[in-house]
Fold this sequence. Notes:
41% of the residues lie in helices and 16% in strands. The chain is built from 9 helices and 8 strands. The chain has helices spanning 20-30, 43-53, 76-83, 106-123, 135-145, 158-166, 183-191, 221-232, 236-251, and strands at residues 5-9, 33-37, 57-61, 88-97, 127-132, 149-151, 170-173, 197-199. Helix 4 links the parallel strand 4 (88-97) and strand 5 (127-132). Bound molecules: nickel (II) ion (NI). The site of nickel (II) ion has 5 residues, from loops.
Amino acid sequence: MSGIFETHAHFDDHSFDEDRDEVLSRVHETVDYVINCCASVRSLTFVPDMCERYDFMYFSAGLHPEEIIGVDMSIIDTVEKAAMHPKCVAIGEIGFDYHFDDGESKELQAKWFEDQLLLAQKLQKPVIIHSRDATADTMQMLKKYRPRGVMHCFSGSVETMREVIGLGMYIGLGGPVTFKNARHAVEVASAIPLERLLLETDAPYMAPAPFRGKRNDSSLIKYIAEKIAELRGITYEKLLQITSDNAKTLFGIK
Length: 254
Ligand code: NI
């Protein structure tokens, strides 16, 4: 047991189609738990199947804000069905992404976000939140629904981090803490109360230095943990223990 709990990866991504089983076997040598987050409609069937084959994998069910275009609202029933699976530990990833938005999908994003927050409430599951270039709208939604959960791949300021944890939520940090130009991520990693921190890779995206730009996988999470442990002046093992305990508490894994 390495003590590593990876809280956010996408092994259903097509970039793993050629060697998924090989990668997952290697990941399991260095990581104790993985939460695979659903993003697309395809994920909702693919991911539960995958998690049945791997003991150490759990998942979240939900549609990412970039994956809702053209998706019928009735698919919320498919999300709910996936969420009833015994290995589903959260609803996600859900939220707002305004990065490529020309203003036209905002309303639709809000509709899906709210419906999935309500589903989480109904099923009493935590949420995994995606927020990109949308801090104000995301905070408004979190204040309205007050879910338990995590703001994943957090890129906001220390001030916003304090607001998020003030709502009782966790912060997920990954590869950007190792990037030379990621000032916010390093500031947040240095200031966050450790009992509110989760580790994640967002694989296949966001590979940490020195692998930046390459395909990411959960075994690279050690570079993220080493960097944060160094920033906090605690041992690597201690950081893994705290963040793993946090993840088990949030996602109800014993
Ligand atoms: Ni993600």
